[in-house]
Amino acid sequence: MEVLTAAGYRADFSPSSLWEVERFLNTEAPGGRPRSRGLLGKDLDVRVAMLGGYVGEVIRRRVGGTWVRDGDQAALDLPGGARIWPAQQVMHRLATGAAGSLTAYASAAGADPGPSTPVLQCRCCGAVPAADTKFRAVQSVLIWIGYTRAPGPFCRDCGTTVFRDLQQKMFTFGWYGIFAVAAPIVLLLNWAAMTKVTALAAPAAEAGGAPVRPMDAGRPLLRRPQVIAGILAPIVLLTAFAIHARSTGP
Questions:
Q1: Among 170, 139, 129, 166, which Cα is nearest to 151's?
Q2: CB of 155 within 8 A of CB of 196?
Q3: Before 113, cis peptide (omega within 30)?
């Protein structure tokens, strides 16, 4: 479902993915009130119908059934003869919170989502969602080597900040020692780890939690003078060395 997957939530139509729908609602409509600038801030009826369609389809794929039109709503006829209205349940969930639990609703229909898995929170600011990943930096000058390791989980903003800062360290001081060969490898590992961070939705407080303040990511890497200098310096040094070698050669 686009509204979930585009925001970084798992929507694979498995019963356990209904915990992701619950988390989505906790984030986008804390206390049942959609955030004005959030994903439920406009076209709420359309979004509720889409979420209801997802919940119903999860149930249908697990226990069977047939979608039917009941007045102006989509309903699902279950194999035992019962009829359910998933969009109504989503509205009930928004109005009542945990009392309208979608996971309990699906479980009663025969599509048990199982136990909830812990929600990762950013280790820097406490926001959700977060990705369990880590970044590294290697600095090498002559025979000295420095190594920095920054473990997650990270939200999107804090992860971007840590990634850019550590990449800047390597671009600036990663090329000038006997361990310089490690720098390109670590740079690539960090970029691979960053794909998990960029896939996340915007950071928000956990339901009922205190407001969060994610870190400021600052300028992109290629707009930082230190990074540009760090890229150009080795090129200039190698070029100067090649010119010198050629001029003093036989």
A1: 166
A2: no
A3: no
- Nearest-angstrom CA–CA distance, 100 and 88: 10
Rounded CA-CA distance 123/151 in Å is: 9
Q: What is the pLDDT of residue 8?
A: 65
Pairing of strands 144-151, 134-142: antiparallel
The model's pLDDT over 9-24, given as tens digits with 9 standing for 90+, comes to 778 899 999 998 998 8
Among residues of the chain, what percentage have pLDDT more than 70?
94
Per-residue pLDDT, averaged over 138-162, amounts to 89
Distance of alpha carbon 50 from alpha carbon 95, whole angstroms = 17
Rg of the chain (C-alpha set):
25
Q: Is 137 exposed, middle or buried (0-12, 13-18, 19+ CB in 10 A)?
A: buried
pLDDT for 250 equals 60
Contacts of 176 (CB under 8 A, 6+ apart): 140, 141, 142
- Report d(CA 109, CA 195) in Å as an integer: 37
> What phi and psi values does residue 181 have, to the nearest 5 degrees?
-60, -25
User: What is the pLDDT at residue 245?
Assistant: 73
SS3 state at 24:
helix
Distance CA 80, CA 76 (A): 11
CB 70 within 8 Å of CB 21: no
Instruction: Work out the end-to-end distance of the chain between its first and last CA atoms, rounded to an integer number of angstroms.
Output: 69
